[in-house]
Amino acid sequence: MDSQDHGSSRDMLASLIRKGRPRVALDVDGVLAHTYHTMIDEWNREKGSSYQFKDMKEYDEMRSNFGMALDDFVRIYTMAWADKWVDIKPSVSEAQLRPLVDHFEVDIVSSRPAELVAPLQKWMSANFPSMTFNIVRASAKGKFDLDYDIYIDDGNPLADRFVEDGGKAGKRLILISAPFNENRGYDRHEGITVARDLGVAIGMLTSTAVAERAGDAQKVAEKSRD
Q1: Which of 19, 119, 123, 134 has its CA 20 to 30 A from that of 39?
Q2: Strand extents, DSSP E, the chain
């Protein structure tokens, strides 16, 4: 579900937008790309099981209740991107992503290994052909230390860093809802807003940006009439 404190969340985002053109760190797996769905499909094919994304109740669920060891997780993740990237579905269309790029400085920030950057670039070109993004690699927790104002991510390690920070860094996390991050109370913490999916997050950000800039334009117009 979306965070219930919409007014407070909008105020926090608006304060960043007023400072200029905010920098956004956009996560890939589970946010821009339905990677986990492809991985689960492959695991089910191998094991004859019937797991679904909704069964990932813990962040490392695929390495525990799914009976998937770490080596299996790495192998299937690597295969998904190296060999089956065409099967990984985007969570939004290019038209849906465009407003975010129009109003913010957006980089792709992922914790993937270096050898899987090239397949990601191919995937990005296939699904968002008119857009160009910088791809930045960082650990799940280390993302917090990068120079971004807003993060769109689904990872518990990054959310935990925001909880530890308590809003002191002035950064904002839009946490994309997933089975492994639900019911953890993240949306009760300063600097974190929960959104149902990337489309909702984009709408939240762009509507705030449009409203703020319209307000600025009105102020300029009123001042010119004085």
Answers
A1: 134
A2: 23-26, 105-110, 135-137, 150-153, 172-176, 192-195
Could you tell me which of 146, 190, 201, 209 has the C-alpha nearest to residue 31? 201
C-alpha closest to that of 24 among 133, 148, 205, 192:
148
Distance separating alpha carbons of residues 176 and 166, to the nearest angstrom: 19
| Sign of torsion over alpha carbons 180, 184, 185, 191 | negative
The C-alpha atoms of residue 12 and residue 193 are separated, in whole angstroms, by: 10
Beta-bridge partners for 162? none
Task: Supply 30's token pair.
Answer: 């589970």
pTM for the full predicted model: 0.89
52 CB neighbour count, 10 Å cutoff: 11
70 vs 47: CA distance, rounded Å: 16
Residue spans per domain, the chain: 6-33+90-225, 35-87
Distance between CA 21 and CA 6 in Å, rounded? 21
Domain at 6-33+90-225, CATH class:
alpha beta
The whole-angstrom separation of Cα 76 and Cα 110 is 17
